[in-house]
Amino acid sequence: MKKLILASGSPRRRELLAQIGLEFEVIVSDAEEIMTSTHPGEVVKELSSCKASAVALTLSDEQRDVVVIGSDTVVAQEHRILGKPKDEADAFQMIQMLQGNTHQVYTGVTLICGEKKTSFYEKSDVSVYPMTEEEIWEYIHTGEPMDKAGAYGIQGYFAKYIREIQGEYTTIVGLPVGRLWHELKKFG
Ligand SMILES: Cc1cn([C@H]2C[C@H](O)[C@@H](COP(=O)(O)OP(=O)(O)OP(=O)(O)O)O2)c(=O)[nH]c1=O
Q1: Looking at ligand 1, which residue's alpha carbon is closest to its atom 8?
Q2: 87-117 pLDDT, tens digit each
Q3: What top-level class would CATH report for the domain 4-185?
Q4: What are the catalytic residues?
Q5: CA angle, 177 then 28 then 167, to 5°
């Protein structure tokens, strides 16, 4: 297995990569996130590519055999794409939309090693129990929503509002590790 660089500041992504027994270095880029598509799957592929490319560009010649991993997660509810909330009022609006409904979580991943590059995405469906306004504010005051796409974390307090998921759990937390491992093997 080649050396790995995780181009992400997300603690969840580090935990998931460590969970499957991989060793890696973390380099966080300040990539400009350029979006040209409106399909959530294409959006997360593009954004993951921006993050991985920004780090790949900083590597020296000796590091050309390293695989750089970039990733991005969004929530899609009907025709809307939700990233991280701007403030608590935005978080309230997002959770208000998600409660009592089913939405999709898309995570895109890009792997870059020298000239070789691959991007893919995974999608999971998440159904949320109805929540009262009081419950939504109580959840926002846990501080959990602000750094998360769709303003919730399935791995935290929000778990008690999850009715059903279809698809891979790690896609929702931010890194679909089964698919990632499958793709990494192709890099040798
Ligand atoms: C839906 C959901 C998202 N999230 C997180 C995963 C991502 O960290 C975050 C979405 O933001 P991203 O912009 O994908 O990632 P990030 O800014 O946290 O990290 P980086 O760009 O450096 O890789 O939301 C959860 O932790 N749990 C969830 O249930």
Answers
A1: 10
A2: 999 999 999 999 999 999 999 999 999 999 9
A3: alpha beta
A4: 72
A5: 20
